Amino acid sequence: MTQDYAATVLIVDDSPNNLGVLHELLRPLYRVLATTNGESCLRIAASDPVPDLILLDVMMPGMDGYAVLNQLRADPKTSDIPVVFLTALDSAQDEERGLQLGAADYITKPITPLVVMARVKTQLEAKKARDWMRDQNAALEAEVSRRMAENDLTQRVSIRALAHLAETRDPETGNHLQRTSGYVQRLATDLQHHPRFAKALTDRYIDLVARSAPLHDIGKVGIPDHILRKPGKLTPEEMVIMRTHAVIGSRAIEDAEQDIRTPLPFLEVAKEIAHWHHEKWDGSGYPDGLAGEGIPLAARLMALADVFDALISQRVYKPAMTAEAARDIIAAGRGTHFDPDMVDAFLAGFDGYVAIANSHSDAS
């Protein structure tokens, strides 16, 4: 077979006569390297190009074949080279020991040329198949990674596009999406090791919440302009309509779930955020009057982030509040509007939230 000519076989035997016989036997078909001791074998095996197969004598002065094989397997560069033992030791125990150490095969001396050639060919073909499979797997893994990255980017862009579409109806929010997403991620991370949240706030879940956060007000696309853009205070009747944006948003996401017929975790989290981010810890929020831990975790995180950003942002109906004043309002809402442990985490890391606000300032 033409492809075998490129294969390199390293022969290791302390007998020059044995080396000569094997060299002459293999040379017509393979590139042959030879050495008489284990130390030299290790150096050659770790050099480029790495041998495709090693024929290794067991009984050698100094480092014997077993010791050589141990070191070959310990080195990542040589650990996959198939090794065939050549030895005069022909007991079952000797053969078993060699195979247990990782030898691919075991040939007893005196050698039979046809046996050696057949065993060498078999081992090289097996190695070629393994190498091909490894390369195929590497290529497949690279393609899967590329597609996953592409899908992830497409998902993120789609979320941003939908969220920005909602923003076109309410343009005064500016960089609200970036800020609230940042707050949510920071708050969830700050709580990650808290006993109440450690089990739920995995890295994956935090990523889902931060990714889904921009969709929290997607339902505002269904609110009439005269209410959404009203510069003054809303009437009670208008407030009822405004509050429907929470349900409108969650239903839109639910419809999207039904269309694709495949559950996507980020859509489930996005639906929770859109539907319940206006609920309050004491049950006085909307649209369902949920209370305490009955409010989904993602929605509780979003509630604090959304209120903080609303307080420090300018609107046509109000000026921006200082971060310190907003902090005091958040603190006052501990245990009534907000999950108390979330408020504690927010206050403890307050400077970090201010930094997020400044990095996505509407003035920048």
Keywords:
364 residues, alpha/beta, Rossmann fold, Hypothetical protein af1432, five-stranded parallel beta sheet
Topology at a glance:
Elements: E1 8-12, H1 16-26, E2 31-35, H2 38-45, E3 53-57, H3 65-74, E4 83-87, H4 92-101, E5 105-108, H5 113-167, H6 176-190, H7 203-212, H8 225-228, H9 236-243, H10 245-260, H11 265-276, H12 297-312, H13 323-332, H14 340-348, H15 350-359
Parallel strand pairs: 1-2, 1-3, 3-4, 4-5
Helix pairs in contact: 2-3, 6-7, 6-12, 6-15, 7-11, 10-11, 11-12, 12-13
Helix content: 55-70%
Number of domains: 2
pLDDT below 50 for ≥5 consecutive residues: which ranges? none
Q: What is the string of SSEs from the N terminus onward?
A: EHEHEHEHEHHHHHHHHHHH
Strand content: 5-15%
Largest sheet: 5 strands, parallel
Helix tally equals 15
CATH topology of the largest domain: Hypothetical protein af1432
CATH superfamily of the largest domain: Hypothetical protein af1432
Question: How would you explain this protein's 3D organization?
Answer:
The chain has about 375 residues and is α/β, with parallel strands linked by helices. It has two domains: about 1-140, Response regulator (Rossmann fold, 3-Layer(aba) Sandwich); about 170-360, Hypothetical protein af1432 (Orthogonal Bundle), CATH 1.10.3210. The chain contains 15 helices and five strands. It has helices at about 15-25, 40-45, 65-75, 90-100, 115-165, 175-190, 205-210, 225-230, 235-245, 245-260, 265-275, 295-310, 325-330, 340-350, 350-360; strands at about 10, 30-35, 55, 85, 105-110. A five-stranded parallel sheet has the order 2-1-3-4-5, with helices on both faces. Strand 1, helix 1 and strand 2 (about 30-35) form a beta-alpha-beta unit. Helix 6 crosses helix 12 and helix 12 (about 295-310) runs antiparallel to helix 13 (about 325-330). The chain is elongated and about 105 Å long. The mean pLDDT is about 90.
